[in-house]
Design goal:
Layout: H1 10-29, E1 43-47, E2 51-56, E3 66-71, E4 74-81, E5 101-108, E6 119-123, E7 126-132, E8 139-142
Amino acid sequence: MFLVPFARNASELSRGLERLFDEPFERWLAPAAEGEGARRPALDLTESDRAYTVKPDLPGVAKEDVKVSVEGSRVTVQAETRKDQEKKEGDRVVWRERSVSSFARSFTLPGEVDSAEAQAKLADGVLTLTLPKRAGRTGSQIAVS
């Protein structure tokens, strides 16, 4: 008899089930901006009385290559990595797996966001979005610092 420990992989199983049900619907409802072949970054979302904090993983991405837009309660994060063709004199590439990759993720928050007061910071491959709660302005882009 073979037993599989359930508790150890419970969070992975939970995430897998969520993706199983969410992804088919998101493909129909997602804006075209997310693009085909873009990777969906994992993210954490927390809520306080005043703001939502979203932390998507964007490894290897420079802040200049990140675009964040907010329209009401809909948030879209897009990013692209570019690996330069690093090659020294006399070297030849034997294997290359790192090239251009793109990340895209859209989600809807439970409430409206004040995009004028929103902040975005990228450090150590993690983008931290601070999105204050407030009804108000329509949509805008957030500068990443």
